[in-house]
Amino acid sequence: MAPVDGLFFRGQFWFGSAEHSNRFRNIRANPAVSGAVTRGLETFLVIVHGRAVETDPGGPEAGGFAEYPRAVYDFDWDAAHPRVAVGADRGE
Questions:
Q1: Tens of pLDDT along the chain (92 residues)?
Q2: From CA 19, how far away is CA 38, in angstroms rounded?
Q3: What are the sequence ranges of the domains in the chain?
Q4: Are 87 and 10 in contact (CB under 8 A)?
Q5: DSSP 60
Q6: Which of 41, 45, 24 is nearest to 33 (CA)?
Q7: Radius of gyration of the chain (CA)
Q8: Are residues 81 and 87 in contact, defined by beta-carbon separation less than 8 angstroms?
Q9: What is the pLDDT of residue 60?
Q10: Residues 16-47 as b or e (16 or more Cβ within 10 Å = b)
Q11: Are 41 and 34 in contact (CB under 8 A)?
Q12: Alpha helices in 3-86 (DSSP H)
């Protein structure tokens, strides 16, 4: 278990990691996942359990997700990550 950045997009939580990370290796071996999203100390908490689905964030099955992080984050995503469209996994 370790913290990751995630986004809620069109009814799904998207979490990312490097393609060859231990996290991705573990998820590929066992896609059962749990996630917790918090804001503040005691103001907001969502806990989800499900199955991770590896998705190309720029592909047609992503439903336009690739543009969402660019709108949410206040930095030049493409300059910071020139070889990666958007590194994300989708939890269902």
A1: 677 778 888 888 888 887 888 988 999 999 999 888 787 777 888 888 999 988 887 788 888 888 888 888 877 766 766 665 444 444 44
A2: 25
A3: 6-91
A4: no
A5: G
A6: 24
A7: 13
A8: yes
A9: 85
A10: bbeeeeebbeebeeeeebeeeeeeeeeeeeee
A11: no
A12: 22-29, 68-72, 77-80
Q: What is residue 89's predicted lDDT score, i.e. its pLDDT?
A: 41
Give, for 58, the enclosing helix (H) or strand (E).
none
pTM for the full model?
0.67
Q: Are 38 and 48 in contact (CB under 8 A)?
A: no
Per the CB < 8 A criterion, the answer to whether 33 and 49 are in contact is yes
DSSP-assigned letters across all residues of 27-43: HHH--EEEEEEEETTTT
